[in-house]
Fold this protein.
Amino acid sequence: PFVFIKLCFILLYYRFWQKVTILYCLSLTEKILATLPARILGMKVFWLEHVTVERWLSKNPLKIFYRLFSQLTTIIVISKVIKDQLQEMIGVKGNDIIVIYNGIDLQKFRMRKYRWEKVARYNIGCVARLEKEKGIEFLIQAIKIVREFIPFVRLIIVGEGQERKKLVWLSERLGLKEIIQWVGYQKEIEKWYSYFDAYALPSVKRESFGITLVEAMASGIPVIASEIGGTPEIIDHKKTGLLAKPGDSQDLADQLLYLFNNRSETKEIVRKARQKVEEMFSLERMIRDFYLLFRK
């Protein structure tokens, strides 16, 4: 009760002293506690959902309040798959949900030319948290398969996480120690894309969007991702990238080999991928969509 009362006073202050008219909620606690008093005070309320719906909401006893208060808000989601889940699993009305895709700065991520057409190199890149849900072990196993056909293949993994020791052990056990580079967390991630000849995101769970796929596509790198969550909204198979079965190392290896062995098709994929990013996933488009929504 104390937290709720304190929250109400904060809302009163911002509404009448700071003339704030919009409340933007991120956490579940904010959504449940702040929505009703904010609406009573005449504020517009927006919720953001940026992860796929799983047990954190579908099995949560607060789900009934989420569904009830959602009628007082507009819910912004970063992919259609989240919208579908909210409707099917939670019972939220579809006309209360707006899809606004994440956007990136196209000046930061620029197209580049291939560097592996006439040289013996094939650097596979992956930027991800080293957690179980990202499926990095399946990418490592796929690299072992690919090396049988492309001896000079290399894997560059950018990121940190709890699974790092296990993944390093797996790579050594498979005899891949010399061809996998672990570079850890990097702030200026855009610089690392210039070292990649292809990009892979082998997620097996909770991939609500996949912003690194968009960054790689904007940088002119052919991409492969697990057909899971929101990734099929980014990648049109064999048009703007390739999709692989989640948790299937052989299929992932097949897609990596396809990119390398079909250069003309890969060039066309890269061109269409950049075009799709410019049309759907730019920072300017995202800002415009938010601006128009808040102005309504």
